[in-house]
Fold this sequence. Notes:
The chain has 302 residues and is α/β, with parallel strands linked by helices. 39% of the residues lie in helices and 18% in strands. Strand 1 and strand 2 (14-16) form a beta hairpin. Helix 3 (81-93) runs parallel beside helix 4 (114-122) and helix 10 packs across helix 11.
Amino acid sequence: MRGERAKSYVLAGRPVEPPRLSGGLHLVATPIGNLRDVSLRALETLAAADVIACEDTRVTHKLLDHYGIATPLTPYHEHNAATARPKLLARLAADEAVALVSDAGTPLVSDPGFKLVRAAHEAGHAVTAVPGASAALAALVCAGLPTDRFFFEGFLPAKDGQQRRRIAELARIPATLIVYESGPRLARALAALAEGLGARQAAVCRELTKLHEEVRRGELTALARAYHEGAETRGEIVIVVAPPDADADRPEPGEIDALLRRALQRASVKDAASEVAAATGRPRREIYQRALALSEGSDNAE
């Protein structure tokens, strides 16, 4: 049975009663910084829902308190999802309205929730999106880089070897790249992107919509140097990188050898070949044979 709690939110100092919300899973985008970036529909949904599933109740409480919303919260994050998900599905089965939010921005974008949405669909429950703020899209439109095609990567792998291999795969994607990063890892990530992607234009977008919002643009190498030398890294960060030059020719054999020699200094023949094949678009078998010849120092390597 749906709860009898009084449901309202406060707008411009006045209480507002939201329209009744149908049962189902409602995916609600919340502000990425500035609390005024919430939509009226999001406020109505959060106020009218029977429960709000959120990553961190302390973070979501700040938004609810600001708008006078008293909807109960329940945690749903990567560490408790396996046990929390059946309970939320049971509430959906009882025709309750469940709102899902992340700490900031659009749910499921580098945040938990995919399995809950899939399970809700499979159980026949309605799933509705309440769109709004997204750090990825906000950074994309602020960066001054091509927006016609873009690829959202999320967070790069933390380990050096895995990160290099992933960047090598990203190198051939003909689209603007969007990467999330943390402050402590920013300089190292930019250096790795510069090494793997070359002299591409990029932008580091930090604290978007907040008081200290900053968009710093330049070549990847210059940006890596700036953050290595102490540029401010506090806050939420999105890196946006320009796509590869569509008119660039494929690397000549000498250029491939140079890439392989650098890769072989820090990786096995197999990993070096995979990395360079991904970066150049050349067949992996061809690159592997060349890497093997270079590593063995055979006559064919010269």
